[in-house]
């Protein structure tokens, strides 16, 4: 083991290559805090998290002023202890998105450092359950796209070996049904079609929508209600055979526990960047396994591929390219399936020259 002697902090703003519109928002910016931790042996681990559009400077301030100074001199292998200490240090702002996103950047860096020192890829260090994970694509299913574009993207994804696609919903019900039906007719019954409402509906509308989507054999209805409406999700789950998926907007493992205990969902979409890092992500995934519930994480495919390969109940990786502009190579895809990297660490080949060029002005900091 060796103590942490230096922390480096930077943020880049990754603007999506394609227009991304869902039922409640448009994605025009992706603020990405990046943390590098170096230990006394000179080994460095790199971690990151993200916001969509806003909040990045607040995350950076919490990292610079509070969290990173608190881990200088700590043993880098004490990942669980560090996570719990930092969580308590910020107890006045926990549970909360800003704190969880900041914790994730540090926690992923610690896991990367440990994996690099041990010479192990993350998916083996964290469990080693699988060698590949099926992919579904979201990139061609955005709400502003016309039906012809949805169909074309789904057909292309199927031809490339992907097992499914996701369509955003939130247009008038008749339009949503027509759009899903057109894609179903084009790809046939064996190709999965998932839907995502992005928390847009009230309970009565969600029940009505689920009944209409049910006959189209969709794989799940994602975030049909506000994420903090656990009772509403429980009622909806009792009213439909459509699997209900939640998780991208939950920031605490205890919130996932409540959903699972109340049978308020049947797919868990825990996001490492929003739950506070790899440490709580693994706890949620294993907790879901105890309830016989599948994990299909939200976003961050470049990191989630390794975590999904680490646990037995991971079912899908969501294809949304995120890091192309600041990495030297993308996630490996073979016959429509995501393959975790065999390189020691998180499996992300960072391009630090590109990160330096793209750094948000004033965001580069060093803490010793």
Which characteristics define this entry?
magnesium; 2 domains; 10-stranded mixed beta sheet; Enolase-like_N; TIM Barrel; 368 residues; 13 helices
What's the topology here?
Blueprint (H helix, E strand, L loop, with lengths): L3 E10 L6 E2 L4 E2 L3 E9 L4 E5 L7 H16 L7 H11 L7 H22 L3 H4 L7 E5 L9 H13 L4 E5 L4 H15 L4 E5 L6 H12 L6 E2 L7 H10 L4 E3 L6 H9 L5 E2 L3 H4 L2 H13 L3 E2 L5 H10 L6 E3 L12 E3 L2 E3 L12 H7 L6 E3 L1
Parallel strand pairs: 6-7, 6-13, 7-8, 8-9, 9-10, 10-11, 11-12
Antiparallel strand pairs: 1-4, 1-16, 2-3, 4-5, 6-15, 14-15
Please provide a written account of the structure.
The chain has 368 residues and is an alpha/beta fold. It has 13 helices and 16 strands. The protein has helices spanning 56-71, 79-89, 97-118, 122-125, 147-159, 173-187, 203-214, 230-239, 253-261, 272-275, 278-290, 301-310, 352-358; strands spanning 4-13, 20-21, 26-27, 31-39, 44-48, 133-137, 164-168, 192-196, 221-222, 244-246, 267-268, 294-295, 317-319, 332-334, 337-339, 365-367. The strands form three sheets. Strands 6, 7, 8, 9, 10, 11, 12, 13, 14 and 15 form a ten-stranded mixed β-sheet that branches. The protein has a four-stranded antiparallel β-sheet with strand order 5-4-1-16, with helices on both faces. A two-stranded antiparallel ribbon has the order 2-3. The protein is globular, with a radius of gyration of 20 Å.
